[in-house]
């Protein structure tokens, strides 16, 4: 298949929509090939079912304009970063060949989320080692980004993506998961504050947008320092 430009790899169906749905839609709007790889099917979820969640994910993927969405089949509520899971994910990376991979944050309250963050990072490296899972030729993504929405610990975002034009479609994709989110005031890494969940998501996106002087945004962190060639072209005014 044609190599992907951007691939989000997350623990559960709906994680990508919450964390980086606007960024995926923005990439699609620019003509990029985008995808989501859900590590598990969400079989231990309290609400809904695997079949229903799969149908919701398919509907959300259409809204986001995804080129591909797949499920790796790892155990929900039991993700592990092991040689076996790294090799399995490495094969998927070699097949999809994404230039940019979006991973969860390296910290989080759900064990699957922070394990997924480390697993994705490590598998992206392992995918470039020829003798590991040699069924496919080695490949490494150019860049790994960690989506850190709702997780304000020590890391300040390396950058924020402007999703002002995409936010309503992001929210529409999230609302596809009615079995998971309707009537709730919290979900995943989104902590409750007494408001409906969908309102919290909007307010959080507005908060990140304010960091770059736009209406809505999504934050990302990278281990490496970002490069700037011409400081005279830098955006986001100081005053």
Spell out the key features of this protein.
single chain, 239 residues, alpha/beta, Rossmann fold, globular
CATH second-level architecture: 3-Layer(aba) Sandwich
How confident overall, as mean pLDDT? 95
Helix content: 25-40%
Shape: globular
For the largest beta sheet, what order do the strands appear in spatially? Answer: 3-2-1-4-5-7-6
Structural class: alpha/beta
**Major sheet description:** 7 strands, mixed
The helix count comes to: 7
Could you tell me the number of beta strands?
7
**CATH homologous superfamily caption:** LmbE-like
Would you summarize the structure shown here?
With 239 residues, the chain is α/β, with parallel strands linked by helices. Helices cover 37% and strands 14% of the residues.
Task: Please describe the topology of this protein.
Blueprint: E1 6-10, H1 15-29, E2 34-38, H2 50-64, E3 68-71, H3 83-96, E4 100-104, H4 111-126, E5 143-147, E6 159-162, H5 167-175, H6 178-181, H7 197-211, E7 217-221
Parallel strand pairs: 1-2, 1-4, 2-3, 4-5
Antiparallel strand pairs: 5-7, 6-7
Helix pairs in contact: 1-5, 2-5, 3-4
């Amino acid at each position: 298949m044609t190599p992907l430009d951007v691939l989000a790899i997350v623990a559960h169906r709906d994680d990508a929509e919450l964390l980086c749905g606007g960024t995926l839609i923005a990439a699609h709007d620019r003509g990029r090939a985008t995808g989501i790889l859900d590590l598990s099917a969400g079989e231990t979820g309290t609400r809904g079912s695997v079949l229903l969640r799969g149908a919701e994910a398919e509907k959300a993927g259409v809204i986001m304009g995804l080129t591909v969405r797949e499920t790796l089949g790892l155990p929900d509520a039991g993700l592990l970063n092991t040689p076996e899971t790294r090799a399995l994910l490495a094969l998927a990376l070699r097949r999809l060949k994404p230039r940019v991979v979006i991973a969860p944050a390296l910290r989080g309250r759900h064990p699957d989320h922070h394990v997924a963050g480390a697993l994705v990072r490590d598998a992206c490296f392992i995918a470039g080692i020829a003798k590991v899972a040699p069924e496919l030729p080695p490949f490494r993504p150019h860049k790994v980004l960690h989506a850190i929405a709702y997780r304000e610990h020590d890391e300040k975002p390396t950058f924020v993506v402007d999703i002002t034009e995409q936010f309503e479609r992001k929210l529409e994709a999230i609302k596809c998961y009615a079995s998971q989110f309707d009537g709730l005031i919290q979900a995943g890494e989104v902590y409750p504050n007494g408001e409906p969940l969908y309102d919290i998501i909007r307010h959080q996106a507005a908060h990140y947008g304010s960091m770059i002087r736009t209406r809505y945004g999504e934050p990302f962190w990278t281990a490496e320092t970002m490069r700037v060639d011409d400081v005279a072209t830098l955006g986001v005014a100081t005053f």
